[in-house]
Amino acid sequence: MSQPFSILFICLGNICRSPLAEGVMRSVLQERFPQREFLIDSAGTNGYHTGEAPDERSVAVAARNGIDISTQRCRQLGAADFNRFDLILGMDQNNLMTINRLAPAGSSAVTGLFTAVARDGFAGNSADRGEEIPDPYYGGNADFERVYRMVREAAEALADRL
Ligand code: 4NP
């Protein structure tokens, strides 16, 4: 049997943006393709928050939109991820630079910026030009709302391509 299509979302801390991307993507795919299996996960380029639950402001904005991300736990991106996932998507250019630096030679994963891959697809070259999903960590609720809207839009667009 073939492996399920798999997507790994990456941000810096894996407590604000990528947990939202993981939760929203899983929810969108469940709605669109209830019969299909996917592997959806998230990780951070740093390990400062390893083992922690997502930021409470991300948990709250997800909950306001009917999505529970409270049981996710933070982990750091590692070399093994490059052979486990079809797509590894960064929220911003710094994330993408780190992803590409860590990619082992011969890695099978396609890497790119989340919004760019959602817009342009992932066949062929990696997509790296697009809007960054801004880090809301030092911001307020409005920043988390904006991140949620951007993540939702990109997740819907990416689902159109699956
Ligand atoms: P994230 O946000 O990359 O969206 O999870 C951040 C979370 C934590 C930190 C920075 C960004 N931090 O510096 O601890």
How does this model look, in words?
- The protein is an alpha/beta fold.
- It has a four-stranded parallel β-sheet with strand order 2-1-3-4.
- It contains six helices and four strands.
- Strand 3, helix 4 and strand 4 form a beta-alpha-beta unit.
- The mean pLDDT is 95.
- Bound molecules: 4-nitrophenyl phosphate (4NP).
- Major β-sheet annotation: 4 strands, parallel
The neighbouring-strand order within the major sheet is 2-1-3-4
Q: Overall pLDDT, averaged?
A: 95
What ligands does this structure carry? 4-nitrophenyl phosphate
Work out the strand percent.
5-15%
User: Helical element count?
Assistant: 6
Indicate the radius of gyration in whole angstroms: 14 Å
C-alpha end-to-end distance? 18 Å
Structural class: alpha/beta
Shape: globular
Counting DSSP E segments of at least 2 residues, the number of strands comes to 4
- Series of H and E elements: EHEHHEHEHH
Uncertain ranges: none
Secondary structure: helix percent: 40-55%
